[in-house]
Amino acid sequence: MISEERRSEILANLSSGVVEYDEEQVREWAHIALEEGLDAYDAIMSGLAAGMEIVGDLYDRHEYFVPEILMCADALYAGLDILKPHLSVEASRAPKGQVVIGTVQGDVHDIGKNLIKMMFDVGGFTVHDLGRDVPLDKFAEEQIRTNSDIVAISAMMTTTMMGMKKIVQAIKAKNPNVAIMLGGAPLTRDVAELFGADGYAEHAGNAVQEAIKMIAQLRRLDQEDDPAN
């Protein structure tokens, strides 16, 4: 049984490896976590995801920018590659939910979309990534096919943004209970609300922040549900 002191040390090193975008450190401590019997889900959520919470705070304070976030994401994925195959016990957990995500037709910008996909993935969501330049009807079709709880749609140009209203209307007409989040540079909160969306992210960084907050809430809920706590 791993001691609480050793657990804290391992988690701190996983977290700091993500924050300092040190892939080798993350890989090393991910292996140590497994060798010493630390629960893989604990290592992911309380180590890697906790590191991304710090990254989000640094971004919010304008100490980190998109390039740093991308490097932190690479470090996080380096750890996930090692830890995720060992989620055998946690595999029986009910999925947190399903998300359809994509960038609208005519738009090939996908950095923000890819970052959000990563955080949903870390949080235990099943993610259906439609990619970029996605035909408008495809979002509603994929939501129906997968019965997903959330549809996250990105646009980085005013011309492509206008298609979002049609997407929201098509999805809501078929399933009014689906939560739809819009994001991208040309949008405002008022426009997102006018389009009928349930959520809004001003730009990629805001979207990342929202996803990180979601992961933090999931971690708190997991800890509350854990009888060991």
Any overview of this molecule?
With 229 residues, the chain is α/β, with parallel strands linked by helices. The chain folds into 2 domains: 4-92, Methionine synthase domain (Methyltransferase, Methionine Synthase (B12-binding Domains), Chain A, domain 1), CATH 1.10.1240; 98-208, Cobalamin-binding domain (Rossmann fold, 3-Layer(aba) Sandwich). Helices cover 59% and strands 10% of the residues. It contains 10 helices and 5 strands. It has helices at 4-19, 23-35, 40-60, 66-83, 111-122, 136-146, 158-161, 163-174, 189-194, 204-225, and strands spanning 98-103, 126-129, 150-154, 179-183, 199-201. It has a 5-stranded parallel beta sheet with strand order 2-1-3-4-5, sandwiched between helices. Strand 1 (98-103), helix 5 and strand 2 form a beta-alpha-beta unit. The radius of gyration is 18 Å and the shape is elongated. The model has no long low-confidence stretch (mean pLDDT 83).
> What amount of the residues lies in strands?
5-15%
Number of strands: 5
Strand order of the largest sheet: 2-1-3-4-5
CATH fold group of the largest domain = Rossmann fold
Give the low-pLDDT segments.
Answer: none
CATH architecture of the largest domain: 3-Layer(aba) Sandwich
Relevant CATH superfamily of the largest domain: Cobalamin-binding domain
Note the overall shape: elongated
Count of discrete domains = 2
Q: Which structural category fits the helices and strands?
A: alpha/beta
Number of helices: 10
Write the H/E string, N to C: HHHHEHEHEHHEHEH
The end-to-end span amounts to 16 Å
> For the CA atoms, what is the radius of gyration?
18 Å
- The residue fraction in helices comes out at 55-70%
CATH domain class of the largest domain: Alpha Beta
Average pLDDT, to the nearest integer?
83
Reported for the largest beta sheet, the result is: 5 strands, parallel
